[in-house]
Amino acid sequence: MAQSADGIWGLDISHHQASIDWKTVAGKKPDFIYFKATEGSTHGDANYEDNRAQARKYGIVSGAYHFFSFTSPGIRQALHFVHTAKLKKGDLPPVLDVEWIKPMPSVSPVLREVTTFLTTVENVPGVRPIIYTDCMLYHHFLKAGLPPPYKLWIASYQSKPSCDCLFWQKSNNYKINGIEGYVDYNVFMGSKSQFQAIRLD
User: Fold this and answer.
1) Helix (H) or strand (E) holding 72
2) SS3 for 17?
3) How many CA atoms does the CB half-sphere of 11 hold within 13 Å?
């Protein structure tokens, strides 16, 4: 995968990437990195604070995401995320990661709790979160009931997403020097000026 051909590219990282050689990763000049901060209403990613500190040390634009749980209230998850993420000026917008589980709950409670999370988080940094998901889940569970407009970060590994998105996760098995194993590879679907414009004031 040719990084230069993709314009503005970046990674998303959690504790699953374990120990990272940050000097080597920074040498590859990713334009951005998103880090997992929280999951559910109590879990925090063990490597989040160190990862964010390292990204800032090497001048890499970064942001934080929350992995949504269908088993705890959206407001508790939102407050947990805000307390942990500690977003600052220059960071990327917060992200809510909504993925399939088996079996999925019905549409109504999913929409209610996701909306509560989004509006609660938005009230703190004053910026609307981005939703990470796939087009099918978005269309079936979220699109009709969410107050517009929410920007999307879409995972689609075989082809370009069929729904409009701000970020495109192109691969979940990318290899980069400085990280053992695989990491997610993402592209910002806009210009450099648009990328700068979404950063927190």
Assistant:
1) none
2) helix
3) 24
Q: Is the pTM of this model over 0.85?
A: yes
Handedness of CA 7, 12, 13, 16 (dihedral sign): negative
Q: Residue written as tokens 């901060």?
A: 37
Annotated catalytic residue within 49, 99, 113, 122:
99
Q: Which residues contact 183 (CB under 8 A, 6 or more apart)?
A: 11, 12, 13, 17, 174, 175, 176
Tell me how far apart the alpha carbons of residues 189 and 187 are, in angstroms, rounded to a whole number: 6
Tell which residue, 153, 171, 8, has the closest CA to residue 66: 153
d(CA 3, CA 1): 6
User: Taking the CA of residue 46 as centre, how many other CA atoms within 13 Å lie in the half-sphere pointing to its CB?
Assistant: 5
Q: What is the pLDDT of residues 103-152, one digit of tens each?
A: 999 999 999 999 999 999 999 878 899 999 999 999 999 999 998 789 99
DSSP state of 42: T
What is the H or E stretch that residue 134 is in? none
pLDDT tens readout for residues 27-56:
999 999 999 999 999 999 999 999 999 999
The residues with which 96 forms a beta bridge, in sequence order, are 66, 131
Beta strands in the chain (DSSP E): 9-13, 32-39, 43-44, 61-67, 95-97, 130-133, 152-155, 167-174, 183-188
Is 180 known to be catalytic?
A: no
Dist. CA 186–CA 148, nearest whole Å: 24
